[in-house]
Amino acid sequence: MTLKGQKNHYNVKFLKGYGHSISVKNSKIILKDNHDPFSEPTIESWYVKNMPYEKIVLQGKGYISTEALSLLSENNRNVILLDNYGKPVTYLNPVMESLTATKYRMAQYDTFRSTEKCRFLSKQIVKAIHHFMWFYISHKSQKNMADQPKQSFIQEFMGFLKTFGIIGLAIAFVIGAAAAKLISAFVVDIINPIIGLALPSGDLKSLMSTVTNSVTGAVSEFKYGDLILNIIEFVVVALIVFIAYKALSKLKLVEDKTKSA
Questions:
Q1: Which site in 3, 30, 79, 220 is 20 to 30 Å from 187, CA atoms measured?
Q2: Structural domain of residue 37, as residue ranges?
Q3: What is the mean predicted confidence (pLDDT) over 24-43?
Q4: CA–CA separation, 214 vs 158, rounded Å?
């Protein structure tokens, strides 16, 4: 019906009519077709490896030799038998059987049944991935170093500081330490006395509770006043960070609007 290279779903040969057959002669597949009973049958001769048909369809009363069927099956060619009305009767497909392949499949099944073998395979896969990642990163870094011009030690150090933002982190650390001292002084020296006015002891930090062991007579003190001061200090720090974040967000929004305008 069609040959390879043509736009078609399959490369199929259709045999029909009185006396159509598939046989073997001189190691060639002989395809005999007789669509028109009033004309001579059409005969094609192919070496099975060069035959362009992937499927051969026979309809009605015809003949196929066992030798031809075996040769077609060995070369993965399908034979389909239809009755006189075009209804499929039989699909003759090659038997996919190999003792070597069967042994390999059994070995694979046995491997994945063993927990130790599965664990070993998982380690090997992870090791291979790590090796590939290390090779890729080292190769890329060497390529980048080769592409960059040579720099002095001071230039490399300044580039390191700029790349990782060390200067900005140092400034932020110094400012944060100073701000922490300021907030701690604010809580201890201002907020604590104000709250202490409402307490009998006059000092929030001195609040505690004691528990005495009735057997040994040991006394345990729970100084929850310090905990309350630390909580207040945390709330103040969080409030200041939130206010600073809101202010920076507004500044960035204004800057984006000016750039877009």
A1: 220
A2: 12-92
A3: 86
A4: 67
